[in-house]
């Protein structure tokens, strides 16, 4: 398979001057990101399907082994602090368990029975979104996990770096990212891993956008849990509500640092009415502001009335 091929160009890499070797690896990283472009259509279709399931309360489930599993966990772990994605709607299924994140458990990737058992134990179903990653696309654990999740009706993505891989055949949304031979043969932590991370960044961020957790390019659903993020929240509310940061800070404190609700409070809404309007708008600040604007001279209560 391509990710295991030895490239004739790099057979003497160990004898090259360091600068030449580093430049060659850098070029490989650039080509890895470029390899994501042909998959943009497949990623976009998966985003829309996934968002619909997650609106019903489903979970994001990341499955993988080795490097691919670690890349998957990194993407998912960043969603709670960035978008306040609920921890109870996030599942990690790393072959070999959590310990394999820091200590290799190579034999675990062959345990298809364990993967099937984990899918069943988690009661994965139609409202869940399962993302399975494997550079080779042949990893028994990941293939079995995605196949079983598909059988149970979940929205499944299979991301692989080799064409005609079994993982692509068992997923509802096959995402092929052909990165080709690695600079160091078989070292998929390099080109394949970089491409996977880039594709996951696109997928998960686009899902959060579709779910109303981004507005005007801002992380309006972030968890403001420290001083730095408090300052960021104040700046966001000030910009969105057209007020100064003192007013923004007061509004944020009234709603426990919820940027969306605070934006409405800073414009004069009662905190409870602000929350009701956000809920009625499906969590979308854009829709909430449009509703408020359309109400015109009506009272805030009229704006959120059914």
From TrEMBL:
Q: Which GO terms describe its molecular function?
A: carbohydrate derivative binding; carbon-oxygen lyase activity; ether hydrolase activity
- Name one matching Pfam family: GKRP_SIS_N
Keyword annotations of the record: Carbohydrate metabolism, Lyase
The record, for Gene3D superfamilies, names:
1.10.8.1080, Glucose-6-phosphate isomerase like protein, domain 1
> SUPFAM superfamilies, alphabetically?
SIS domain
Q: Indicate yes or no for the key word GTP-binding.
A: no
Q: Which domain of life is it from?
A: Bacteria
Could you identify this protein by its name?
Answer: N-acetylmuramic acid 6-phosphate etherase
